[in-house]
Every structure is written in structure tokens, then in C-alpha cells.
Design a protein that fits this description.
- The protein is mainly beta.
- Helices cover 6% and strands 38% of the residues.
- Among the domains are: 102 residues, Immunoglobulins (Immunoglobulin-like, Sandwich); 163 residues, no CATH class.
- The protein starts with a helix and ends in a 9-residue tail after the last strand.
Length: 549
């Protein structure tokens, strides 16, 4: 009886359900959207900062819809376990994707999704692509340039110098990271890296208004002037930042005649902040004004972390090897050399660099003459006797080696840019239009012009020989000293010429045949254009944590 009553109660509900199912619906076949994947790449491997290009072939189950009836959305997110598309980067709303990928390089692939929506009925389709981003910043050069919009730098790596498959040219790195250029007048671009820790791998870019640190691994922004100084200097006249040698513990910077450093024997390796200005010792007087050009020794446990030229006292001074952050700048021990006295040079410094045998070479003048002063600052502070006991290195009293008279060399009074060869006693200098190499043998000094004339209206604005530090990149020894980079400006566009040179002579040495099979030793290997006025060049060594990469 109970079962019979229950069936009667359910009967109206059954009739009601059947009624809803028999409603008067207008059934239409859906015009489904799909993306054709037959024979089409869905996985990509690209370098960071390269453009990702995907042109999907869209199919419809019925008839093709006009573009006005469709909307697109491209997004990107990490495809790691536990990640989903809730944390995304918007890439584009165009049908075809063509965007620069700035996401960090990662062993974990990224997912790139395309959403296609039919505006007429609201139906949608999604397609997933897999993208692996690998580091694009290998060894190369950085070129600081300026135009009406501000200051930026380009990164260039060439197949010849860096031994890669093809050239890389990353334009306007600062703009790609910050969506703006730096303000002010261009000052310097520098790269600092050591092998014993991955924490010190930095790029510095400076103007007279801004000072910024980027990652040497992928150019990601790290910090600005507010973190780089304890007290921001009232005036910015920033030099290159350097950190070199077999035992590099100090990162050195000169600003407006004062020395600043980061001493990682006194501070943590991850410290970004430069010390307060280093004071002179009492024997140097109350004030020194150091040149923006300085020398860092390469010796193991050298007598100094860096050597500077005091423009006020017209003498060389040094920052001792120290465990203290704010060690004083001091003089050298009394000298016995007859060539000259490093404690009392008495000339104005034009330029200072490191050359053959790791010697310091300084271009000096008294206002009319030009001389090349040579000294061996690459001395160990302590030597050991036969019993292994430490003793004072008496060579520290005899640092000056020689003076070469350059006054009679062609156009030397017009020289604006200098660099040094490392495989012979060899100085290179450039005027607005011409490049000369100086060969030195004993007291014999001669020069020769090595370049063919640049196009009419172009003037040289920077010059640098490819001399990567072997303490960092021993694998580049085969190309070291064999390439010359020259920047020019024609009033509208900055260019960089890459020339191949003989590292023992400095002469042009392009041995690559052109399209007709002809070899022209003076022809550039590469020309990179489209930049603002280039004011500084530096070598950037690859941002990995092993010795040879």
C-alpha cells in the first residue's frame, strides 16, 4: 500500500519533467573554432629578449568568420607544477603573435595560451603552446648611446669574437627593462663579474643624473642610486666601475675625483652599496683629485687593490690591499728608479690603461708634449724566501720602467681615444677620423694609420680592443686581441664597426672572403647601426657560474 501511494506522488513530477524536455527550442549547429596543429610547431625554444612569433591557422567547422567577429587574447605564465593561468602576463590581442619575450630564462617551460572568442555567440576556443626561454646574454660588448629621448645601451655579441653561431644585437636594453631611457648626459657603462661567487655579476650604467645596477645574467633591474650610495654625491661625474685580477675583492668607482669601493673582505658579497669617499693619508695632504682612469693589478695578492693618478699632486697613488671598507689612499714607498718617480711625475694624465705584460701605460703631457709612461704596478706585496718565510718585496721600490716620446707621431695632438694591445708593446689611438697603431721596440717608436676612411660625415666617438679578462673567460683566449670595435656618429645615427686585427701588430687582418671570394684585410667584419651617439664601450663577460662560459 505504501509503495502504491509513493508511486502516485511521483507521477506529477514525471509528467512535469517530460514537459520541459519537450520545449520549443531552436537548435543550431555551432560554428566551432579550432587551430590547426598538423605539421605546425607548438613548442618553441627562444633566447630571452628575442621575439616570439606565432601565426595560428584558424579553422571553422561551418564557414569562416570575418576578423571583425573574432577577438584574441594571448597570455603567458610559468608551466611549473602547481602553477596555472591565474598569474599571467598579457602578451597581445592581435591574431598573430609577434612580441619580445622578457620573462627570465628558466629550465621550466612557460605556457603561452591563445584564447579566440566568437563575438556573435560568445563561444570560445583556447590553444596552448610551450615556450622554453634560455639566456641570451653571452659574452659581448655594451655600447652606451644617447639621443633626444635619453640614454640607453645596446648589447652586441658576434660570431667571431664570442664564437657563437650567429650575431646577437639587443637594442635599447634599458628601455626594454624599464619602458624608459635614462635622463641626463651619458657617462659610462661597465660590467663586473668574478668567478668565485655568482652573486657578483653586474652591469652598471651611469649618466650625470642617474646611476643604475642591472643583472649581468639577463639585464634585469636590480637597484638604483639610492641603494648604490650611503649618501648620494651632490655631483655625478661617474667613471667606469672595475673589478679585475686573480684575487678580486674590491669593486672600484671614481666619482668627481673621489674613490669609492665595495670591499667584499669587509662587506657581504651581496652588498650593492659603495663606501663613502676614501680619504687620503696624511702624507698625501688634505686633498687629492683622482683621474677617472685607473689601473687594477693582476698579481696574486698584489700590493694594491687599485692604482690612481692624483691630478692635483701629479703623482700616482694607491689603495692598499685591505680588509677594511674605508682604507685610506696612500703613496708608494720611496723609489729608486731612474726612469721617473711614481710619487712625483709632474705631468698631466691624458689616459691610463693596462697593456703588454700587465704593465701600466699612461699618456702624459706638459701641455705641448706627449709621452707614454710605463710602470710595473703588478707586484706582489710579499714574497717568500727559500724556507717559505715571508719577506718584503724590494721590487716595490723600483716601479717605473720607461718613458717613450710620442710627440712626433702623426696627429698625436689630435688623439681622443686610446687602447692597448696585450700581445706586444703596442698603443692604439684615434682622432675624429683616423686610427693609428704605435709599435714600440726598445727606444724606437713609430706609428701607422690602419683604417680606410670612414663614410663622409662620420666621426669616431669610441674605440676598444677586444681584450676579455682571462681570469674570467679563459675560453676566449683564441679571439682575445683579434677584434677592434670603433663607434662613429654622423649627426643622425651611431654605428659600431667590428674589425679583425692581428693581435701582435694591431694591423687590420680581415681574412674572411666577401660574396665574390675576395679578401679585404681593411674591411669591417660587421657593422651595427641604428643607435644614438655612442659615448662609451665595455666588454661584458657571460653571466654563468662556471669558469669558461
Amino acid at each position: 500500500m505504501k509503495k502504491f501511494i509513493l508511486c502516485l506522488m511521483l507521477l506529477p513530477a514525471l509528467f512535469t519533467s517530460c514537459y520541459k524536455d519537450e520545449g520549443n527550442y531552436d537548435y543550431k549547429e555551432l560554428n566551432e573554432i579550432t587551430v590547426d596543429t598538423v605539421g605546425v610547431k607548438t613548442s618553441f625554444v627562444i633566447d630571452q629578449y628575442d621575439s616570439l612569433v606565432i601565426e595560428p591557422k584558424i579553422n571553422f567547422s561551418l564557414s569562416a568568420l570575418p576578423e571583425t567577429a573574432l577577438s584574441y587574447r594571448w597570455i603567458m605564465y610559468s608551466d611549473a607544477w602547481g602553477k596555472d593561468d591565474t598569474e599571467t602576463t598579457e602578451l597581445s590581442t592581435e591574431r598573430n603573435l609577434n612580441v619580445q619575450i622578457t620573462a627570465p630564462a628558466s629550465a621550466t617551460p612557460y605556457a603561452v595560451r591563445l584564447y579566440i572568442t566568437n563575438k556573435n555567440d560568445g563561444s570560445s576556443y583556447e590553444m596552448k603552446y610551450t615556450v622554453t626561454v634560455q639566456p641570451s646574454v653571452v659574452s659581448g660588448i655594451l655600447a652606451l648611446h644617447q639621443d633626444a629621448d635619453g640614454v640607453d645601451f645596446d648589447y652586441i655579441a658576434t660570431a667571431g669574437a664570442v664564437m657563437i653561431d650567429k650575431n646577437k644585437h639587443m637594442r635599447n636594453v634599458v628601455s626594454s627593462i624599464l619602458d624608459r631611457k635614462l635622463s641626463g648626459n651619458a657617462a659610462a657603462v661597465s660590467a663586473v663579474r668574478v668567478n668565485y661567487t655568482t652573486l657578483i655579476n653586474r652591469v652598471y650604467v651611469a649618466t650625470d643624473e642617474e646611476f643604475m645596477q642591472l643583472s649581468g645574467y639577463d639585464f634585469a633591474y636590480e637597484c638604483d642610486i639610492n641603494e648604490l650610495f650611503y649618501d648620494i654625491p651632490s655631483r655625478l661625474q661617474l667613471s667606469k666601475v672595475k673589478r679585475e685580477g686573480q684575487t678580486p675583492y674590491c669593486t672600484i668607482l671614481v666619482n668627481d675625483g673621489s674613490v669609492y669601493n665595495i670591499n667584499n673582505q669587509a662587506s657581504q658579497k651581496w652588498s650593492n652599496t659603495f663606501s663613502d669617499p676614501l680619504r687620503p693619508s696624511s702624507d698625501l695632504g688634505e686633498r687629492i683629485v683622482v683621474s677617472p682612469y685607473y689601473y687594477i693589478p693582476d698579481a696574486n695578492f698584489p700590493m694594491a687593490s687599485a692604482i690612481f693618478y692624483d691630478e692635483l699632486g701629479k703623482r700616482f697613488v694607491r689603495l692598499p690591499k685591505t680588509f677594511y671598507e674605508t682604507e685610506e689612499i696612500v703613496s708608494f714607498d720611496p723609489q729608486v728608479s731612474t726612469a721617473f718617480d711614481v710619487n712625483n711625475v709632474g705631468k698631466d694624465l691624458i689616459w691610463l690603461g693596462k697593456g703588454y705584460n700587465n704593465h701600466a701605460f699612461a699618456v702624459m703631457t706638459d701641455g705641448s708634449s706627449r709621452e707614454l709612461y710605463r710602470a710595473d704596478f703588478n707586484k706582489a706585496e710579499t714574497i717568500y724566501d727559500e724556507d717559505g718565510s715571508p719577506e718584503y718585496n724590494e721590487e716595490l721600490n723600483d716601479l717605473a720602467l720607461r718613458i717613450y716620446d710620442l710627440t712626433s707621431l702623426t696627429d698625436i695632438e689630435k688623439a681622443k681615444f686610446y687602447d692597448l694591445g696585450l700581445y706586444a708593446t703596442q698603443l692604439m689611438y684615434a682622432t675624429d677620423r683616423d686610427i693609428y697603431v704605435v709599435s714600440i721596440s726598445g727606444s724606437n717608436v713609430r706609428c701607422e694609420k690602419i683604417n680606410r676612411d670612414f663614410p663622409e660625415g662620420e666621426e669616431i666617438t669610441a674605440l676598444m680592443i677586444w681584450n676579455p679578462d682571462m681570469n674570467i673567460m679563459r675560453s676566449l683566449e683564441t679571439t682575445r686581441g683579434k677584434y677592434l670595435y670603433v663607434a662613429t656618429w654622423n649627426g643622425e645615427e651611431g654605428k659600431i664597426y667590428e674589425f679583425k686585427i692581428a693581435r701582435n701588430t694591431g694591423r687590420m687582418d680581415n681574412d674572411i672572403p666577401d660574396e665574390f671570394g675576395k679578401v679585404d684585410a681593411a674591411a669591417p667584419v660587421n657593422v651595427f647601426d641604428g643607435m644614438g651617439k655612442i659615448t662609451d664601450l665595455c666588454i661584458k663577460l657571460q653571466g654563468k657560474d662556471n669558469f669558461d662560459n
